[in-house]
Amino acid sequence: MTLPAKIPELRILNMETGETMAFDQLIVPGQERWDKVYPKNLARMLDMIGDEKMKVVAYLLRKKDTMNLVSATMREISAGTGVSLKTVNKVMQTMQKNDFMHKVKAGKWRLSPRIICGGKQSIGMATINYYDNVD
Predict the structure, then answer these.
(1) For residue 114, what are the contacts with CB-CB under 8 A and spacing of at least 6?
(2) Could you give the CA distance from residue 100 to residue 22 in angstroms, rounded to a whole number?
(3) pLDDT at position 66, please?
(4) For residue 103, what are the β-bridge partners?
(5) What is d(CA 49, CA 22) in angstroms, rounded to the nearest whole number?
(6) Residue 109 and residue 73: Cα distance in Å, rounded?
(7) CA angle 127, 110, 40 (to 5 degrees)
(8) According to a count of CB atoms within 10 Å of the terminal CB, is the N or C end of the chain lower?
(9) 14-43 residue pLDDT tens
(10) Chain centroid to CA 62: how far?
């Protein structure tokens, strides 16, 4: 069960605009950390055991930055994986439809922090709030 924490209001500051955004910190009793996943190792495993669709996911994990942003067009993903453009398109649409990622703009994608996110739980919740409200 997830319960709201009894803490002061927390806010995220956009350093470019000065705008702040409130976020809720949730605490799961007994859980004070995120499980760590090494994206590059997970990507290698997916490449080894997966089909063409898994190669696309592995590529995205390998290319994401610390804010879960992937800068690559579908053609670049296709070229980088050896997977057809049609399959890349299908994977990207499926991931967007199921909220595993969203398109920020042409050639920019953000993976959901509900799937992969580093850091402590408070940072994870801030990242999820940012993902839900920005881009």
Answers:
(1) 99, 128, 131
(2) 23
(3) 79
(4) 109
(5) 41
(6) 9
(7) 90
(8) N
(9) 777 887 766 554 445 555 555 566 677 777
(10) 12
Query: Looking at the whole model, is its pTM more than 0.90?
Result: no
Picking from 57, 11, 12, 16, the residue whose alpha carbon sits closest to that of residue 37 is: 57
pLDDT tens-digit series, residues 63-98: 988 788 999 999 999 999 999 999 999 999 999 998
Pull the structure tokens for residue 41: 């190792």
Measure the CA–CA gap between 117 and 110, rounded to whole angstroms: 12
- What the block records as the tokens of 63 is 């290319």
Between CA 77 and CA 94 the distance in angstroms is 15
120, 126, 129, 130 alpha-carbon torsion, rounded to 10°: -120
Enumerate the β-bridge partners of residue 11: 22
- Which amino acid makes up residue 122? S
Question: CA-CA distance, 116 to 132, in Å (whole number)?
Answer: 14
CA 31 – CA 114 distance, rounded (Å): 16
C-alpha–C-alpha distance, residues 80 and 72, integer Å: 10
CA–CA separation, 25 and 63 (whole Å): 28
